């Protein structure tokens, strides 16, 4: 092969790689552009404070050329309620299970648990919805925030377990030994030394888990169902931002609300991810 | 094979037939018996893998942390067999300083000094806390350097300062014995010199056992030295004597650089 | 001492909860699908493409949806590779460690964070129009549309995983090749790629696993018909989308059939994910 053909191949491949790489920016820009340009109109104070309009109210507004009344307050509060409920269980259980796994790298039982956590992580969210339906909706007899939170909890758990285990494994072994050499009992070593030192990683893992479940629609369709009003009763059907988006999508009168709520959802997830990244960076430097 | 034991005044620590194994059937430390004199610096020397760190860590029951390690024999601290005591109590009486400085990253300098108290749930009054912090930091020569930054994290300290902080942390608990596992091998020569002078001062308050792979360090600061080879205690004698006229051939080979 | 014992039991209990959840999942899926499987027989159910809810003669089968799932997912994978591979080379080889690689990496992370429903909306309102204009589909719904959007959705995941493997190729190995006069392309082809091929392969398997379970975007773009899809322009349903569509109002035999489909999806996804993770662990034990 001559020098020139070699060089041509090399350059061609390089340009191809660059071209396709920048091409991936295209869908991102396209999606964000669509959301921003169509969604900003609908964002105002009532967007955050009022519940979604009914299809009748929307129809009237459209006829008179106004922007739609109301907002997504019922969705925001629902998401908040269910994510918090899910986190209250997922965070402590996840962290403790992660500690357990980090402390027992060789046990067969631990390997099984790790395996199951991987399994859960790869399970489609709609199936988790079915599970929460079977566990909570059926016995309770109705859709509920509790059921939705259960589904979200199951989805958050493996992420928190994994990030806890990984972070703990990265801590230098001398930390544990130094604490032990001072006479500290095991539980003190874990709670007072290991976990605080691992805080950055745990925080990041939790934020990422939260941002992941915030955008989920499918499992909530089978568990929380949705609601037209702001709801704080955990045993009653509850709305959530993605659920509202789905409702808007299905109702031609409410279609205008889609963009603002999607913009809000994306911004929320983006902010959570950015915070998580910043924390991860700062913590790594230390 | 004889284990030469020389007694002078009060032995504060007595090891009797101590063996440690990582895998069954193979001893990393084999039948070591030795008396350690109070308020002296005793060095443990030997080539890599001879078992010196393993022996040191048996004294504060560190091996308890690892289920596959088995320790046999007796270790008496002021007449009490520490092998039968609660491990955490032992560790308060025998403090340890490690090869790499390891101050707790989430605690301030002051908190690091008091870490032994905090982790053991021992309550101190405000006055007692301040007193311990100051005296421990003075003992290691750090007080003037950090007295205005006690509430900052220790990460900005140099390696030598961090190690002195770890020593302060260990002495704050007022242990009987200080176990030092190659405390200067990760430090530069100047920091090493400072810590060696420090140890010579500290021995007035504590009994110090120092594992070192640096023969000249042992020669500079220790009163007596143990030479270990392949898990055995080969020779134990006054440092000056061992260096000038060693009894065992293996000791002589090590000191002249032929082994290790 | 008892505090230690208590604490250790707490840790164990937390790990045991994971086990319980898994057991609960298996139990719920199996017991829920019992009715359907006993009525239709397991094999019959899997291989039947009926979906007939007429009362008195209900007949359900999963085949249309299994085919829909596999069709869209594999197609999405095939479409994703020509984009994901160059980007992972960009990040992991050509511009490894440089600012531009960090930028593209951040873009990829952003793409990964976009929720499924937003992809579905974009697909429905914008991309669909594109498909119609290109005469690729009459109304824009169907296998092809959903596969393309699905491909875009799994690109970030596949890219970040495989980029890690390219980053792991040791520099001195590559420098050895360069010093013999190789071009970058040749180094990739002869050194980096052979070293990373198992890991990259595993990354794509895991991306496939992700695609299999995608629900919202696919539901909004696949056309929601219950017939067996045979060509790119056909509409259909996947296992995930049929559940999403019909679960809310189903009961009795239909509900059980949907749960049975859920069980099948669970098993298929689990197998694919486990294969992927197994290859990864064997190949790169540090990950």
Structure description:
- The complex is a heterotrimer of chains A (286), B (260) and C (287).
- Chain A has helices at 3-23, 25-39, 45-49, 55-63, 73-103, 108-122, 125-140, 145-170, 173-181, 186-197, 199-214, 218-221, 241-250, 257-285.
- Chain A is mostly helical and 286 residues long.
- Chain A has a domain at 73-258: MetI-like (MetI-like fold, Orthogonal Bundle), CATH 1.10.3720.
- In chain A, α5 packs parallel to α8, α5 (73-103) crosses α11 (199-214) and α11 runs antiparallel to α14.
- The longest helix of chain A is centred in the first third of the chain and has 31 residues, at 73-103.
- Chain A is globular.
- The model of chain A has no long low-confidence stretch (mean pLDDT 87).
- With 260 residues, chain B is α/β, with parallel strands linked by helices.
- Chain B has a single domain, classed as P-loop containing nucleotide triphosphate hydrolases (Rossmann fold).
- By secondary structure, chain C is mainly alpha-helical.
- Chain C has 2 domains: 2-52; 62-283, MetI-like (MetI-like fold).
- Helices cover 77% and strands 1% of the residues of chain C.
- Chain C has helices spanning 2-40, 42-47, 63-94, 99-113, 116-133, 143-167, 171-179, 184-213, 216-221, 239-246, 252-283, and strands at residues 51-52, 59-60.
- Chain C has a two-stranded antiparallel sheet.
- In chain C, α1 (2-40) crosses α11 (252-283) and α3 (63-94) runs parallel beside α6 (143-167).
- The longest helix of chain C is centred in the first third of the chain and has 39 residues, at 2-40.
- In chain C, 49% of the residues are buried.
């Amino acid at each position: 092969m001559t020098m020139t053909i070699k060089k041509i191949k090399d350059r061609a491949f390089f340009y191809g790689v660059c071209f396709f790489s920048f091409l991936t920016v295209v869908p991102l820009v396209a999606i964000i552009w669509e959301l921003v340009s169509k969604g900003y109109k609908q964002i105002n104070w009532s967007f955050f404070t009022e519940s979604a309009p009914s299809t009748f109210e929307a129809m009237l507004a459209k006829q008179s050329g106004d922007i739609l009344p109301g907002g997504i307050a019922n969705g925001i509060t629902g998401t908040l309620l269910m994510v918090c409920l899910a986190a209250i269980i997922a965070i402590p259980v996840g962290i403790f299970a992660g500690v357990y796994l980090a402390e027992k790298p060789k046990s067969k039982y631990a390997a099984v648990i790790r395996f199951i956590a991987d399994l859960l992580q790869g399970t489609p969210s709609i199936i988790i919805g079915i599970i929460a339906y079977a566990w909570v909706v059926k016995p309770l007899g109705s859709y509920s925030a509790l059921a939705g939170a259960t589904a979200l909890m199951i989805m958050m758990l493996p992420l928190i377990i994994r990030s806890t285990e990984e972070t703990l494994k990265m801590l230098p072994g001398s930390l544990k030994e130094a604490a032990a050499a001072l006479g500290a009992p095991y539980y003190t070593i874990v709670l007072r030394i290991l976990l605080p030192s691992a805080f950055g990683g745990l925080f990041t893992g939790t934020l990422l888990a939260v941002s992941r479940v915030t955008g989920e629609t499918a499992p909530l369709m089978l568990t929380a169902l949705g609601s037209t009003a702001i709801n704080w009763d955990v045993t009653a059907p509850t709305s959530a931002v993605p659920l509202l988006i789905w409702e808007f999508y299905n109702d031609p009168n409410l279609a205008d609300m889609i963009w603002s709520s999607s913009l809000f959802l994306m911004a929320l997830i983006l902010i959570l991810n950015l915070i998580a990244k910043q924390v991860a960076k700062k913590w790594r430097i230390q | 094979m004889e284990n030469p034991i020389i007694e002078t005044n009060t032995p504060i620590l007595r090891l009797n037939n101590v063996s440690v194994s990582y895998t069954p059937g193979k001893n990393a430390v084999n039948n070591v018996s030795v008396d350690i004199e109070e308020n002296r610096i005793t060095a443990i020397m030997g080539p890599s893998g001879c078992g010196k760190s393993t022996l040191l860590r048996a004294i504060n029951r560190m091996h308890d942390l690892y289920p596959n390690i088995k320790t046999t024999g007796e270790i008496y601290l002021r007449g009490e067999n520490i092998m039968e005591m609660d491990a955490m109590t032992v560790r308060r009486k025998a403090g340890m300083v490690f090869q790499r400085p390891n101050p707790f990253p989430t605690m301030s300098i002051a908190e690091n000094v008091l870490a032994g108290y905090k982790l053991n749930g021992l309550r101190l009054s405000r006055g007692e806390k301040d007193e311990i912090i100051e005296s421990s930091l003075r003992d290691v020569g750090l007080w003037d350097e950090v007295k205005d930054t006690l509430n900052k994290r220790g990460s900005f300290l140099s390696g030598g300062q961090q190690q002195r902080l770890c020593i302060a942390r260990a002495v704050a608990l007022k242990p009987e014995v200080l176990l030092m596992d190659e405390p200067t091998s990760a430090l530069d020569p100047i920091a090493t010199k400072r810590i060696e002078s420090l140890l010579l001062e500290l021995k007035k308050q504590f009994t110090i056992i120092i594992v070192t792979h640096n023969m000249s360090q042992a020669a500079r600061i220790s009163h007596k030295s143990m030479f270990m080879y392949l898990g055995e205690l080969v020779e134990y004698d006054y440092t000056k004597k061992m260096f000038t006229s060693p009894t065992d051939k293996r000791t002589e080979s090590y000191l002249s650089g032929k082994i290790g | 001492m008892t505090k230690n014992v208590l604490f250790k039991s707490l840790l164990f209990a937390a790990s045991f909860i994971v086990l319980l959840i898994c057991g609960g999942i298996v139990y719920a899926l199996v017991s829920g699908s019992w009715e359907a499987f006993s009525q239709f027989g397991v094999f019959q159910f899997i291989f039947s493409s009926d979906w007939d809810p007429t009362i008195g003669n209900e007949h359900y089968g999963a085949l249309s949806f299994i085919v829909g799932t596999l069709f869209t997912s594999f197609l999405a994978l095939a479409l994703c590779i020509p984009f994901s591979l160059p980007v992972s080379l960009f990040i992991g080889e050509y511009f490894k460690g440089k600012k531009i690689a960090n930028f593209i990496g951040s873009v990829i992370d952003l793409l990964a964070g976009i929720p499924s429903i937003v992809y579905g909306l974009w697909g429905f309102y914008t991309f669909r129009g594109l498909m119609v204009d290109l005469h690729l589909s009459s109304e824009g719904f169907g296998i092809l549309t959903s596969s393309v959007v699905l491909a875009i959705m799994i690109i970030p995941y596949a890219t970040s995983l495989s980029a890690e493997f390219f980053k792991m190729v040791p520099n001195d190995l590559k420098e050895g090749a360069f010093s013999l006069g190789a071009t970058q392309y040749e180094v990739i082809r002869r050194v980096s790629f052979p070293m990373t091929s198992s890991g990259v392969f595993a990354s794509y398997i895991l991306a496939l696993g992700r695609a299999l379970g995608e629900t919202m975007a696919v539901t909004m773009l696949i056309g929601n018909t219950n017939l067996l899809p045979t060509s790119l322009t056909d509409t259909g349903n996947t296992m995930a989308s049929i559940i999403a569509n019909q679960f809310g109002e189903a009961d009795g035999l239909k509900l059980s059939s949907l749960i049975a489909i859920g069980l099948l999806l669970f098993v298929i996804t689990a197998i694919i994910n486990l294969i992927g993770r197994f290859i990864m662990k064997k190949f790169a034990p540090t990950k």
